[in-house]
Amino acid sequence: NGISIISHVFKKAMKSNIGEVFVAAEDQEIIDDVNKNGGQAILTNSHHKTGTDRIYEALQKLGKSDIELVINLQGDEPLMNIEDIRKLHNQMIITESELGTLAANIKDKNLYDEKNVVKVETKESLENSQFPKAINFMRKSNVKTKNIYHHLGIYCYHVETLKKFVSLDQSQNETKYKLEQLRALDNNIDIKVTLASNAPIGIDTKEDFMAIKKIMEYKP
Fold first, then answer.
1. For 56-115, how does the pLDDT look when each residue is reduced to its tens digit (9 = 90+)?
2. 23-25 and 99-104 beta bridge pairing
3. What is d(CA 31, CA 36) in angstroms, rounded to the nearest whole number?
4. I want to staple 174 with a disulfide (CB 3.0 to 4.6 A). Which of 22, 87, 158, 182 is the partner?
5. DSSP code string of 65-84
6. Phi, psi of 195 (to 5 degrees)
7. 195 in helix, strand or coil?
């Protein structure tokens, strides 16, 4: 519909009405696109190994001292549900947690073997517990394992936890599985998980892009 993916994402973040929204990117092309579409953007270094490291640099450049929580909504998630974003934010406040994320039920069994769909295993089921701890994150998993969910591309950090996270070296599991959240678990930083209403398509492949394009262009 004439708007870039990243601009769809920041507009979705703004609609959640939680706080100020900034896009952190290493490419001037992205910065220009966001500014053109009415958003705020921060140009960051190109050496970052993970999105979390990029988020922290952007936070430092902002130079604001009154921020307690930072939500990292990943730039390939234009269909993230606004109420789910708010739910994660509220759970972080209520429970005074260090780090939280969202996950959804897996309805298609083929996704258990799909490496582009990250899975999370939780200590208790998300249906029975409001904000249980994550035990592990993986790219492939066994259908029969209990409490396995589809992990969504969003995190909410307490600022002090974000500082601690970026000060740590990448862990072996993080580099092996290419999952930055394993750095937190490997360093005893709890990640809490709350249940999302659905699992929106994130854009990892050209097929994902075409599927989202059809959804967004459909006018009933």
1. 999 999 998 899 999 999 998 999 999 999 999 999 999 999 999 999 999 988 889 989
2. unpaired
3. 9
4. 182
5. S---EEEEE-TT-TT--HHH
6. -80, 125
7. strand
Q: How many CB atoms lie within 10 A of CB 75?
A: 21
Q: Rounded to whole angstroms, how far apart are CA atoms 157 and 5? A: 24
Residues 195/103, Cβ–Cβ less than 8 Å: yes
How does 32-70 read in b/e, with b if 16+ C-beta sit within 10 Å? Answer: ebbeebebebbbbeeebebebbbbbbbbeeeeeeeeebb
The answer to whether 4 and 33 have CB atoms below 8 angstroms apart is yes
What is the number of helices (H) and of strands (E) in the chain? 8, 8
Contacts 24+ apart (CB under 8 A), 201-206: 201/79, 202/74, 202/76, 202/77, 202/152, 202/153, 203/5, 203/76, 203/77, 203/78, 204/76, 204/116, 205/116
Give the predicted TM-score (pTM) of the model. 0.91
CB 116 within 8 A of CB 205: yes
